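Sequence in, structure out.
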Amino acid sequence: MSFVIAILGLAFLILVHEAGHFLASRAVGLRPRRFYIGFPPAIAKTTRNGIEYGIGAVPLGGFVTIPGMHRPIPHDAERRFSHAVSDAPALGGAVDRVKRTLDDDLEAALHALDDFEAALRDTTVTPAAKASAEKGLTELRDALGKDAYWKAPTWKRLVAIAAGPVANIALTVVVFAILFTQVGGDPSRTVLSVSAGSPAETAGIQPGDRIVAINGEPVSGTELGERILSSEGKPLTVIVVREGKELTIGPVSAEQTEGGYRLGIVREGTGLTPLSAVRRSFEVTGLAAREIVFSIGRLAGGEGRNDVASPIGITRVSSDAVQEGLESYLWVLGLISLSLALLNLLPLLPLDGGHILFALVEGARGKFVRREVYERVSVVGLAIVLLLFFVGLSNDIGRLS
């Protein structure tokens, strides 16, 4: 059951990402054509105001279709209409006119498409060829329409593409803020758990104990941690309240770890006020984002290969967190959402970061990058993404074995 919850959580993060693209595109006038929860085949769908909404049979995230991501070229017509021409060579002349106008007169290309559609209606072709031609007509008309992505001002394109990662980052901030209002804010004096073999366990400190004084001096939650850290291993006498009674434990010496001197206790967190929780959430999100970026940087430098995980490993970690409880799972879900956003911002096609980079380049140049360049860069980007996937997959298989 924990694996099912983990998979659904990942699907939800992808859905949030696509919803960001969808809502932002609509807001700036780039009217999407389709928005699906899950992936085809569709088990239910409806069309409203020219947008097809659907539920796919594969419940792993979702997708949104924004019209005209690239300037149409003659090859687009060749790819979609060639089957119809093979069945009915008489259509060749109409297709040639579409291809010529796509090269130099996009306004005339719309009329050429109308002529081809009329000729197609009067011609008998196989169902597969007709379906391909009709799909090509829709795609080319979308790409030639006023709300096509490639025609939009640079700022609109940036908003539509960046909204996906921004939605995931916003979700991380919201999840962390909610957690900080409940737990994980300022540390309390109540012991949540005791590490096995730690000085605290040896001395007899138990979960549920409330530490009220160190060496006879009362301490607050913040002061408690500071007193232990600054003890430098010197013996401490700990006064706790257990089941309404005060007990003196110790002396006990904190042991030195990488993070300083510790007794080996984990304390309950006290919830913060909403404003403080939001502030803390932004701080933690920023720190986590910096660590993720540094990890990616180390990977580019040939280090940190073992830190890469595939969806299998991510699902396993999420599943383990589910078993630990809702709080742990939400922390992990927030971190995965942040990781998804930052990975999508890498300047590689077909990732969102690649589209953002090309939008900025085209805006600065004042003209469009040739489709051939897009395709070649996409091949390189896809190869890198697949390489990361297989590295992560090999790591996950090694961990499982």
